[in-house]
Amino acid sequence: MPLELSQVTDPSDFKQIMPVDYDAWQTPYNPQLKHFRPNLPTRAESIAYATAKNTKKLLENDPNRFYLKVTDTDTHVVVGCATWVINQMNENGDGKTEAYWHPEGSEEREFAECFIDGLWGFLAERVTRKHMDLHSIVVHPSHRNRGAGRMLVRWGTNKADELGIETVISSLPSARGAYERSGFGCIEVIPPSPRLKKRLDELEGEGKGFKWRELLEEDLSGWLMWRPVGRDWIEGEDVAPWKS
Question: Which GO terms describe its molecular function (predicted)?
Fold first, then answer.
């Protein structure tokens, strides 16, 4: 059952891609996802939301954003997908997140905004040059260990080499090994923003904060992965530019 990688150019492809995206993020469970997307009641609603959002972005024809899919050529089933972005520096580093996907005034919204701003701020302090940025990647649980993930990652690193730029990934702890096998160095832990704990202390001082404490019980850390221009990371020789 050969696999084929292609760039997504037709919005109708998201009808196949988004169910894969939804199911893949559940196994293993990703505790960060609820802060980037609305927590909708059903799988169907979640898929519809993601389909509409990604269709809108695709139709914007941003030359720096690339949607990819991997298809099983025997069954014509999409088994994995990824989004790569050419980031001029860190496009979110100086902004203020508005987590519109959560109800206005809710603890979930404030938490998401604080968490995301802390993540972007951490990355922006380090990655200050134009680079390839992996925004998302998934492979359906039923099709893992077939090489689809490596195909999606290698497309991005090949594009980065073509452009003469570095590649950066903010990785979940569970994915670190896969990225290392794809030529990335594991630079440092991305911790949850200290602002989260500070705000929790403030809320508890007001007799609030139960929801925040519940959300902070989950592991929201990650790994900052980096690959130099033109080749894979060499352990013991390479140092990320912001660490040298």
Answer: acyltransferase activity, transferring groups other than amino-acyl groups
